[in-house]
Amino acid sequence: MWFLKDSLVFRTIPDCGKKLKTFLKKLKVFQEKLLLFFEKFLIFLKSVFVFDGGFHSAMTV
User: Fold this and answer.
1) Local confidence band at 1 (pLDDT 50, 70, 90 cut-offs)
2) Which spans in the chain are helix H?
3) What is the mean pLDDT of residues 25-45?
4) Which has more pLDDT, 17 or 25?
5) What's the confidence (pLDDT) of residue 54?
6) pTM, to two decimals
7) Chain centroid to CA 4: how far?
8) Which of 8, 25, 30, 60 has a 20 to 30 A CA-CA distance from 15?
9) Alpha-carbon distance 59 to 61, whole Å?
10) What letter would DSSP give residue 8?
11) Domain residues of the chain, as ranges?
């Protein structure tokens, strides 16, 4: 009985390892995409605020 249980565990471990590896790869790709999105978003925010600041200074002059 123990032998069957152990062999079952050893059969499922490599499968879990493979699934974990693919999951971590997907997570890394997602993280990179998220970082890229935040960089673009920050650049967008900066451009908006720079424009907004310029607009306000033009209004006060």
Assistant:
1) very low
2) 2-60
3) 91
4) 25
5) 54
6) 0.48
7) 40
8) 30
9) 6
10) H
11) 1-61
